[in-house]
Design goal:
95 residues, mainly alpha, 3 helices
Length: 95
C-alpha cells in the first residue's frame, strides 16, 4: 500500500495524537471534550436558525404596501369639477 502525502491519519498517528492529548490535558480531557461537543451543538443550532430564517423569507416574501387614494383625489374626469372645489379650502380673505 502506498503512503499518501495528504490523507486521513492512520492508526499510529491517531494513537500518537491521543497520547499527546492525554499529556497536555491530563485530567481535564473529559471536560475539554464536553466543551468541544457543546460548542459544536451551539454552532449547529445557530446554522439551523439562520437556515429557518432564510427559508421563511423565501417562502413568504414581504408584501408591498398598497397606497390608499386620497379622499379628495380625482378618480375620473366626470367628477373632476366637483373634486377640485371640495379639495381646496376657501381663502383666508373670504368671509
Amino acid at each position: 500500500m502506498q503512503a499518501m502525502i495528504f490523507g486521513m491519519p492512520g492508526w499510529a498517528e491517531l494513537l500518537m495524537l491521543a497520547f499527546v492529548g492525554v499529556l497536555i490535558f491530563g485530567r481535564r480531557l473529559p471536560e475539554v471534550g464536553r466543551n468541544v461537543g457543546r460548542g459544536i451543538v451551539e454552532f449547529k443550532k445557530g446554522l439551523k436558525g439562520i437556515e429557518d430564517e432564510v427559508d421563511d423569507t423565501v417562502e413568504s416574501p414581504r408584501e408591498t404596501p398598497r397606497i390608499q387614494p386620497d379622499k379628495h383625489e380625482v378618480v375620473d374626469s366626470k367628477s373632476a369639477e366637483t373634486s377640485h372645489a371640495d379639495a381646496h379650502p376657501p381663502s383666508a380673505g373670504s368671509p
